[in-house]
Amino acid sequence: MTDDKNTALYAFEKYGDMVLRTAYSCCGSYSEAEDITQDIFLMLHARPVVFNDDEHMKAWLLRSAINKCRNFRKSFRFSRTYSIDEENTGNHASYCMDTTDIEVRELISHLPKKYSAVLYLYFYEELTVNDIAGILKKNPNTVSSLLQRGKARLRSEIEKINETGGHHEEK
Which of 62, 69, 86, 163 shows the smallest number of beta carbons within 10 Å? Predict the structure, then answer.
């Protein structure tokens, strides 16, 4: 690891992309994800946290990203001014891998937050159920149940899209 002065820089270099992906997945807005990511690392720079190891740092960063996204989704700005159409302008095309990946991430982001966070951490960050439980401060059995229910909801959404000819309908 590193000393307090370089903790934020070290964390950004090692986990910056992961935090950005997590924020984007949770809030659905690339520009907001960038702002959230910047806020997290500025906060860490201003008030350094002592981490036991890199895994502790990673968990703290993921938890911070998820919490900031929840706050964003509760905000007046999101509820009154956010438009998904504004985000589909292609300004983040190089960030996302391919169309299928974008569609699946979009479906996951439209699921209830209790499922989307668990699915994202499991599939995209490749964390174990126990790791996710630690990050979300939930019982591993609860995380496992949320993961199974989330997968079932995601499967159901994909089946609906296949039945309607490939168009995702907003609820």
Answer: 163
